[in-house]
Amino acid sequence: TVGAVAVDSEGNIACATSTGGILNKMEGRVGDTPCIGSGGYADNNVGAVSTTGHGEAIMKVTLARLILFHMEQGKSAEAASDLALDYMKSRVGGLGGVVTVDPQGHWAARFSSLQMIWAAAQNDTLHYGLYTGE
Amino acid sequence: MIPVVVVHGGAGHVPRERSEKSMEGVCSAARAGYTILRGGGNSMDAVVETVTQLENNPAFNAGCGSVLTNKGDVEMDAIVMDGKTLGSGAVSAVRNIANPIQLARLVMDKTSHVYLTAEGASQFARSMGIPEVPPESLVTEYSRMRWKKNLRPDANPVECQMGKMG
Q: Which chain B residue shows the shortest CA-CA distance from A102?
């Protein structure tokens, strides 16, 4: 799965997510990616999220919308992402990762899996990582 | 407002021999999206361009390089969402097109629907003039190798892709 979130100079926010699904999936199986609130969500008033990981678990907790719910309650992009990923792991035993932005351009790349490849560009600076803490 | 684009190339297990190419891919895609934003472009154009680049990169599980179904086919899903209008477009189980993310955007921009699937999505793609590509053009040697490996009765495809739970 691949995905992106962005904030432009007008303060408008968008998300995009695309996938081939899970290995050797049953024909006709659809995971979280195309489901609004699961594979992604964007609202100029709150932020945007693109998700990746175990699709069935992501759908059960509507991961993208859950993160934005926590941000609506005042959590930062990073804290909201961690809170929702922890909930998904403990409640339905699913691993995954997210990229998240808020309307002020604060961003987070967080994951509960061992790895997630990510990159972020802001202020003419490129940030990137693969393991937790990078 | 200071523009920003954040990109992921998937969570789970990344074999060491593929990590460098994958890292180059997400960095290149992030730069492409950021170039659009720095030029005054909008966030929707930036995320669609970013994801299009990743779909075209065989190092990632989307577009060219997608994993295969149990029958050995490619079925792809995608979504876009615009935070200004809450407009959204999605497609699922689409085959034979290079960039499902662009089809998802067309669902948002050109229809009153939010989500089209399977043959309906393919019909819509044809009506929008999106060229069909040969199925084999989306399949890589790596995805075929993983498909074969996970046909074994003792295989665990989810663990193979996502890694073991901690």
A: B4
